[in-house]
């Protein structure tokens, strides 16, 4: 095989298992008990572990949190329905083992790191979790293992956290142990793109590392695209999510323009989407949440700043995205004022606080900042979301969800996230609804952001 190509798994399962993805063994250690170990069992790691197990791999699933392990065993993890079925089946199998003991990693032929790489309040990458995970696998590394990072990070991170330390340990990367990077491409809550159907991009520290990593990925995905280096693979993920960030910022700007001209931006986007080439729809909203778009571009900007390289378009897009939740609160204040009501004491109900529909995930959700800012400006705030009984706010305070939204008697309702199971029948024609989704509800007094 050569580099810079996409490789697809054979459709015949027996051929695939016998040739492309043979049991992962190495002359120095032929007795691995597991084909793959997954480190970190969150929104990426658990579905990855289940995908490997469903594809006939022996899986060791590790998380340092015993509480998380208990939640998974109790089948309480937030998963797609298809993954819930996979988990129920896997828990009864001896070739799927949950553990919080890092020493167990020695028993796996491959170790894949799937841990969060967030940013802090100053928009600086927080690599503490990833560094800890890499330190753990370095302490248990065994000749013959393939080590792969999937967490989004800066260009050169895999080299810094794995390749160089392994060399310092006296191991020959590409001979004794194999190192690769292949960023995850999971979209939580989206069943339209199966985890095993989305192509994976992979880069290896050496050609042999790339070969081993490709074989590892083809144990469950249908297509692997190989690039020439670790750095190219790392940069690919940064481009993917920076592309999305820039276009979301543009969609938000068009939404503001359309509002000022009394045009429905949803109609405009739907119309533009009829063009079969040269246009890709991005939807405006109250901000951006989750583990990717609000964070990943800052890894690139952080690295470029250290190198004194400017990226004005990306910088401006991320500035606009970070300001969007405050734009929501400003709009709330304006709408109330237009109706003769001040913010102080106004009853504002936020509907949906997850960062996207149909996920039990608050990471970087714009709703958290919106709730905090509404309270800071004097509003009496409540929220409605069936996925969260309460939510932690800035400064350590918490806010309980509203059981009866009609009884809350809101002066203004902010539609932030519309889950499929969210009942809005309690809305009536007297209430003002600020629809930050631009297409979420049909009421008499609906206003756009």
Verbal overview:
This is Nucleotide sugar dehydrogenase. Belongs to the UDP-glucose/GDP-mannose dehydrogenase family. Residues 349-440 form the UDP-glucose/GDP-mannose dehydrogenase C-terminal domain. One of its GO terms (biological process) is polysaccharide biosynthetic process. Keywords: NAD, Oxidoreductase. There is one protein chain. This protein has 2 domains: 5-227, Rossmann fold (3-Layer(aba) Sandwich), CATH 3.40.50; 322-448, NAD(P)-binding Rossmann-like Domain (Rossmann fold, 3-Layer(aba) Sandwich). 37% of the residues lie in helices and 14% in strands. Strand 10, helix 12 and strand 11 form a beta-alpha-beta unit. It is globular, with a radius of gyration of 24 Å. It starts with a strand and ends with a strand. It has helices at 13-20, 45-54, 66-73, 81-90, 128-140, 157-168, 207-217, 230-260, 265-272, 296-306, 312-338, 366-376, 405-408, and strands at 5-8, 36-39, 59-62, 96-99, 110-113, 146-149, 178-181, 200-204, 223-226, 347-351, 380-384, 390-392, 398-400, 412-415, 432-435, 445-448. With 449 residues, it is of the alpha/beta class. Helix 8 packs across helix 10 and helix 8 runs parallel beside helix 11 (312-338). The strands form 3 sheets. Strands 1-9-8-7-6-5-2-3-4 form a 9-stranded mixed beta sheet, with helices on both faces. A 5-stranded parallel beta sheet has the order 11-10-14-15-16, covered by helices on one side.
């Amino acid at each position: 095989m050569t580099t810079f190509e996409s490789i697809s798994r054979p459709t015949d399962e027996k051929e695939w298992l016998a040739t492309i993805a043979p049991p992962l063994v190495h002359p120095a250690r032929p007795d691995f008990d597991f084909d793959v170990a997954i480190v970190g069992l969150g929104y990426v790691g658990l579905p990855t572990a289940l995908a490997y197990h469903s594809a006939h791999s022996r899986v060791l699933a590790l998380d340092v949190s015993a509480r998380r392990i208990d939640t998974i065993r109790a089948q309480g993890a937030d998963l797609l329905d298809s993954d819930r079925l996979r988990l129920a089946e896997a828990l009864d199998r001896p070739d799927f083992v949950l553990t919080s003991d890092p020493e167990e990693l020695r028993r796996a032929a491959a170790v894949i790191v799937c841990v969060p790489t967030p940013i802090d309040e100053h928009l600086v990458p927080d690599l503490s979790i990833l560094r800890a995970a890499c330190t753990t696998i370095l302490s248990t590394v065994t000749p013959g293992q393939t080590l792969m990072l999937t967490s989004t990070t800066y260009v050169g991170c895999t080299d810094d956290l794995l390749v160089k330390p392994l060399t310092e340990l006296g191991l020959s990367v590409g001979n004794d142990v194999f190192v690769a990077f292949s960023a995850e491409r999971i979209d939580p809550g989206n069943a339209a793109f199966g985890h095993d159907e989305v192509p994976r991009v992979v880069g290896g520290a050496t050609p042999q590392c790339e070969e081993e990593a490709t074989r590892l990925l083809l144990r469950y995905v249908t297509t692997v695209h190989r690039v020439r280096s670790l750095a190219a693979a790392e940069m690919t993920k940064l481009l993917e999510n920076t592309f999305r960030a820039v276009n979301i910022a543009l969609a938000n700007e068009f939404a503001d323009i359309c509002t000022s001209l009394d045009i429905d931006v949803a109609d405009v986007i739907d119309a533009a989407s009829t063009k079969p080439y040269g246009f890709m729809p991005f939807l405006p909203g109250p901000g951006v949440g989750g583990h990717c778009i609000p964070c990943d571009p800052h890894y690139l900007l952080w690295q470029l700043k250290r190198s004194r390289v400017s990226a004005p378009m990306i910088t401006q897009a991320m500035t606009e995205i970070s300001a969007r939740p405050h734009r929501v609160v400003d709009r709330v204040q304006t709408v109330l004022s237009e109706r003769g009501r001040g913010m102080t004491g106004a009853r504002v109900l936020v509907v949906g606080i997850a960062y996207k529909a149909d996920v039990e995930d608050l990471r970087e959700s714009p709703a958290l900042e919106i709730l905090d800012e509404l309270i800071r400006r004097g509003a009496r705030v409540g929220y409605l979301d069936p996925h969260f009984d309460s939510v932690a706010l800035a400064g350590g305070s918490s806010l309980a969800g509203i059981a009866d939204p009609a009884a809350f008697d809101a002066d203004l309702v902010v539609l932030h996230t519309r889950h499929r199971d969210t009942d809005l029948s309690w809305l009536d024609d007297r209430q003002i609804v600020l629809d930050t989704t631009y297409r979420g509800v049909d009421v008499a007094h609906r206003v756009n952001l």
